[in-house]
Amino acid sequence: MIRAYKFLLRPTVRQAQSLGEMLADHCSLYNGALQERRDAYRHSSRTSIRYGQQSGQLREIRAFDPQRQGRWSFSSQQATLRRLDRAFQAFFRRVRAGEKPGYPRFRGVSWFDTVDFPRDGDGCRWDSTPHDPVTRVRLQGVGHVRVHRHRPVTGRVKTLSVKREGRQWYIILACDNVPAQPLPATGAVTGIDLGITHFLTTAEGGHLSNPRHGRRTAAALADAQRALETFPRVRRDQRSAPHRRAVEKVARLHRKVRRRRLDHAHKTALALVRAYDRIAHERLTIANMVRTPGPKPDPQAPGSFLPNGAAAKSGLNRSILDAGWGVFLGILAQKAESAARVLIPVEPRDTSRTCPPCGHVDGGSRDGEKFRCTACGHRDHADRVGAWNVALRAGLVLPHVA
What we know:
This protein has 402 residues and is of the alpha+beta class. The protein folds into two domains: 174 residues, no CATH class; 150 residues, no CATH class. The protein contains eleven helices and 17 strands. It has a seven-stranded antiparallel sheet. A five-stranded mixed sheet has the order 10-9-8-11-14, with helices on both faces. Strands 15-16-17 form a three-stranded antiparallel sheet.
């Protein structure tokens, strides 16, 4: 299996300064390569420059500027150029598909927070001594940086990434050949239904409340953003100390919400894989579910539009994104693979409109959270009906569901 480990770095003051310089120089390389591609396309008969051409120029760039570009790892700079190349590949793919193109943009220093090292031992070295109480990672141009390794690393370290989050630094290890850790079989199976009122409902009728992390922090975040808007828009190096503190406060609140959401997803997924051998869930397409409704032209008044429910849909979209269904399902898949559990995605259509005992499908059977079949009169909670149907579509036998 492939797994990633994220550990907090504890650099010295000088090392933290060097890490910041490393990000700034890689950001400069990224922007310079982007500018070269733009100029070549505009002024040279729309000529496209590829990654191989820009990578071949790295030796000249490092020799021309040894104090900045020459002090960092050659392979990490290649990874930065590959990052730009992937952005252009995604841009052209969206153009061919007729989607909104989203041309690659220049990155500010505050927007460029990650440097990748494609291979352990090339510009970086992970300290893999198992019994050493102090773990360090060696980064070219920075030195040996202490790592807060809160859990053991299994498998073979393939790539490393240095990431800045606020004022803290992290090292991310991507490992392959990670051994699985199967859990004892329980003999239990279930289907789950994800929702807004209840984050999760099982086929047995168990409900897990929705923590709504974003809504809980919305007021504090709105106040912080209003305080930030009182400052004029200036370049990063021209910001005053109060301006920098206002920016950091907004970023800190966003990180707080994200970490709470991740913590809830990890704990919920772990509880499921410990309790069930096979778990069925809906195959959700979150991007389509949160799509903004299109305008409705008024045929009676050209140039006018009819109400399309955009305000109500906007509130529903915020609730869906706040619940973090996509993040949870991704974490659940990882934990199920590691624990040797079986995860079964099924088609979500009409799971909350189908009566499980008789199979009758009718949208009128559901009224909010209540379900009453218009054919046989079966009554139940609507979310439990959805989870029950998910389990039936996955071919699971639920002995205690009735």
